[in-house]
Amino acid sequence: MATYTQANERLRALEDIEQEIGAILQNAGTVILELSKEKTNERLLDRQAAAFTASVQHVEAELSAQIRYLTQVATGQPHEGSSYSSRKDCQMALKRVDYARLKLSDVARICEQMLEN
């Protein structure tokens, strides 16, 4: 259940990033429109440029965080909300137990054969 909640949070974060990219494009459009005028409003240009820069930095940071998370998931490194590593360890331990059980039964069979002879 926690994994689904975390996945939904990740998707919401990506949707927020998408909306912010839309705002970035809108800021850029406003700046271009203002620059195309004969007499530009420099205060508006400064505000829009500052908003554009801040938004780009925020999007870059958020996308970097998402990429780091996906890198952890893809490489099987432990990360918040994932049970993959624990499940993999458990599966490997069960395989080792099965292998040990097989070898012990082989040893037991050999011992029985030796006792019979």
UniProtKB/TrEMBL annotation:
Alphabetized Gene3D superfamilies for the sequence: 1.10.287.3490
GO annotation, biological process: regulation of transcription by RNA polymerase II
InterPro entries listed in its UniProt record: Mediator_Med11 (IPR019404)
Locations listed in the record: Nucleus
Pfam families: Med11
GO CC entries: mediator complex
Protein keywords: Activator, Nucleus, Transcription, Transcription regulation
GO molecular function: transcription coregulator activity
Predominant subcellular localization, coarse grouping: nucleus
Family, as annotated: Belongs to the Mediator complex subunit 11 family.
Subunit structure: Component of the Mediator complex, which is composed of MED1, MED4, MED6, MED7, MED8, MED9, MED10, MED11, MED12, MED13, MED13L, MED14, MED15, MED16, MED17, MED18, MED19, MED20, MED21, MED22, MED23, MED24, MED25, MED26, MED27, MED29, MED30, MED31, CCNC, CDK8 and CDC2L6/CDK11. The MED12, MED13, CCNC and CDK8 subunits form a distinct module termed the CDK8 module. Mediator containing the CDK8 module is less active than Mediator lacking this module in supporting transcriptional activation.
Protein role: Component of the Mediator complex, a coactivator involved in the regulated transcription of nearly all RNA polymerase II-dependent genes. Mediator functions as a bridge to convey information from gene-specific regulatory proteins to the basal RNA polymerase II transcription machinery. Mediator is recruited to promoters by direct interactions with regulatory proteins and serves as a scaffold for the assembly of a functional pre-initiation complex with RNA polymerase II and the general transcription factors.
Name of the protein described by the UniProt record: Mediator of RNA polymerase II transcription subunit 11
Taxonomic classification: Eukaryota, Metazoa, Chordata, Craniata, Vertebrata
